[in-house]
Amino acid sequence: MPKETFYNLSDVKKERILDAAIDEFAKNDYHQANVTGVIEKSGIASGSFYQYFDGKKDLYKYLIGIILKRKLKYLDKEVMNSPEQLNFFDLLRQLYKGGIQFAEENPRLVAIGNNFINSKSKVCIDIREKQKPTSNQYFEKLIKDAIKKGDVKKDIDPTFTAKFLTSVNYALSDFIYAEKGLKENTMVIIDDLINVIENGIKK
Amino acid sequence: MPKETFYNLSDVKKERILDAAIDEFAKNDYHQANVTGVIEKSGIASGSFYQYFDGKKDLYKYLIGIILKRKLKYLDKEVMNSPEQLNFFDLLRQLYKGGIQFAEENPRLVAIGNNFINSKSKVCIDIREKQKPTSNQYFEKLIKDAIKKGDVKKDIDPTFTAKFLTSVNYALSDFIYAEKGLKENTMVIIDDLINVIENGIKK
DNA sequence: TAGTCACATGAAGCTGAATTCACATTCATG
DNA sequence: CATGAATGTGAATTCAGCTTCATGTGACTA
Q1: pLDDT tens-digit map of A106-153
Q2: pLDDT single digits (tens) B64-81
Q3: Whose CA, among A6, A14, A167, A203, lies 20 to 30 Å from B163?
Q4: Does the beta carbon of A81 lie under 8 angstroms from any beta carbon of chain B?
Q5: What DSSP assignment string belongs to B92-119?
Q6: Could you tell me if residue A19 is inside a domain?
């Protein structure tokens, strides 16, 4: 976590530093991202950086936390208005579309997040292990519930299906990122996609 | 590419070095993998390493090349006996199952490969750019052909679907890798999966 | 005015990992 | 054996990037 001094900075300066950090980590994986890069982009002195953070790892952890929080908040506000009354597939649709929209609005955050999830770097594995509920486990729970509720047929493998849904979700964000933005047909693609899945696994 | 000296080595020694390298790069991403690790595992002197290879990057490129070659050869031999007469979905089934089997038989190679594909490291991007036909493009061509042949309906997005199929493919290998081996039901899962996809996009 | 506090600075130091290099050893050949 | 070309070796060097530290600045207080 950042030090007190960081929080005491003016919002403008905090923002400047954060923006530089996001830029650096969005363009590079953990190892390739340099503290020097953040320092140069934000125009602070290298010494100052260590007044604000315990070091590179500290900054990275902080970023990952922010990204997670923002995404959850976003999904919560934008799409998860009424998770209880939705059936599994509509919920999935909401989640995917929300995820896409988030990726569209925050491409750099998503770049960092996707990299974080896939990375084999010790630092990333370390952080991931401390974060109890992964996207994977979240989906798995959702699927098990859906089976109980009768939305989804019994004979699918929840673990694999969760993995499948998660990876398709990442593929979607990647797609948006690579294509540099939403196209008119993106949401149609998602609807098609969910229909495919729905046909395959609904009861 | 390795230097002449490497090729002159006895097969046993070449194998020992290659094995050490595969181990090192399977357990770590490009940046985290150390030449020192390869040196220690293979029991050669650090100086010798530079007699055989131009450096870390050179070794890595060589490994990636080997992995690609082995996988292609494997798919070619094991599953692609008659690509012409298969319809798109049977071909897909073959490819997936072949991929899974390859992952089962060569978990370390697949670990390196998957990491290579996802990595943002300059070295990886560099190598990827020089390799013309990606798995993605291969699928895209397959899909376009399938649309022409009438196996797949016209109104899907080939680019996205290729991305989708590729990412599901990776998810599958990852799954095998994480679960540490094939289960009795793995092939059933794949069949189900293809059925789902087939229902969704066939004409 | 002096003292203290909070933040700012960048040169200097540290570290770990890649790479080099000067010397040692092996081995095929005459 | 003798020779030297090929190969082996690991201590020393280089280097990039993270981090520390000694010192500076300005604002607020007594």
Answers
A1: 999 999 999 999 899 999 999 999 887 778 888 999 999 999 999 998
A2: 999 999 999 999 887 776
A3: A203
A4: no
A5: HHHHHHHHHHHHHH-HHHHHHHHHHHH-
A6: no
Instruction: Please give the distance of CA B7 from its chain centroid, rounded to a whole number.
Output: 24
Tokens, residue A41? 């982009």
Within a domain: residue B5?
Answer: yes
% pLDDT > 70, chain B? 97
Asked whether residue B194 is assigned to any structural domain, the reply reads: yes
Gap from B140 CA to chain A (nearest CA, Å) = 14
Tell me if residue A32 falls in helix, strand or coil: coil
Task: Please report residues of A whose CB lies closer than 8 A to that of B32.
Answer: 31, 120-122
Cα–Cα distance measured from residue A193 to residue A81, given in angstroms and rounded to the nearest whole number: 22
CATH code for the domain in which residue A197 is found: 1.10.357.10
- CA max distance for chain B: 60
Supply the pLDDT for residue B121.
93
The closest of B130, B118, B31 to A111, measured between CA atoms, is B118
Note whether residue A164 is domain-resident.
yes
Taking an 8 Å cut-off on Cβ atoms, the answer to whether A199 and B199 are in contact is yes
Q: What is the number of domains present in chain B?
A: 2
More confident residue, B77 or B22: B22
Question: Is any Cβ of chain B less than 8 angstroms from the Cβ of A187?
Answer: no
pLDDT of residue B61: 96
| Residues of chain A found within 8 Å of residue B158, distances taken between Cβ atoms | none
- Give residue A103's domain range: 82-201
- Please return the burial class of B158, using the count of CB atoms within 10 Å of its CB with bins 0-12, 13-18 and 19+: middle
DSSP B176-203: HHHTTS--TTHHHHHHHHHHHHHHHHB-
Q: At what angle do helices A186-201 and B186-201 cross, to 10 degrees?
A: 130
Kindly give the parts of chain A with pLDDT less than 50.
Answer: none
Average pLDDT score over chain B? 90
Q: Do B121 and A32 touch (CB under 8 A)?
A: yes
pLDDT value of position A124: 95
One-letter amino acid for residue A90 of the chain: D
Conformation bin of residue B86: beta by default, left when phi > 0, alpha when psi is -120 to 50:
beta
